[in-house]
Design a protein that fits this description.
With 109 residues, the chain is mainly alpha-helical. It contains two helices and no strands.
Length: 109
């Protein structure tokens, strides 16, 4: 089902979250996973520490956000492809010593 849905894309504009019906939304997970998480963690920390972003910082982020969003979306797709390829490789490695054997199975899709 997930593969049939439109791919998630990072965007420089706040587009909200369709599935949550939320006008404002920030993707937020562990900062060790994705660059966008690191960016938003930095912005949130700055706001918590000083109460706001300076105008210069806001302008800098706004000028870079298109590039950051595009690169993040591109890298996310590369990471998903690498994950799928690695999973397929590990499945093949697991079955390597079972070549020629027969197994019962159920086709579900």
């Amino acid at each position: 089902m997930l593969r049939s849905m439109k791919k998630a894309m990072y965007d420089s504009q706040s587009l909200g979250h369709y599935g949550l019906a939320a006008e404002f939304y920030s993707h937020f997970t562990s900062p060790i996973r994705r660059y966008p998480d690191l960016v938003i963690h930095r912005v949130i920390r700055e706001v918590l520490e000083s109460g706001t972003l300076s105008e210069a910082r806001h302008e800098y982020l706004a000028s870079r956000m298109d590039d950051i969003a595009k690169q993040s979306s591109d890298r996310e797709r590369v990471a998903v492809d690498a994950e799928r390829e690695t999973e397929a490789l590990k499945k093949a490695e697991f079955m390597l010593d079972k070549v020629g054997e027969e197994f019962d199975g159920l086709i579900s899709a």
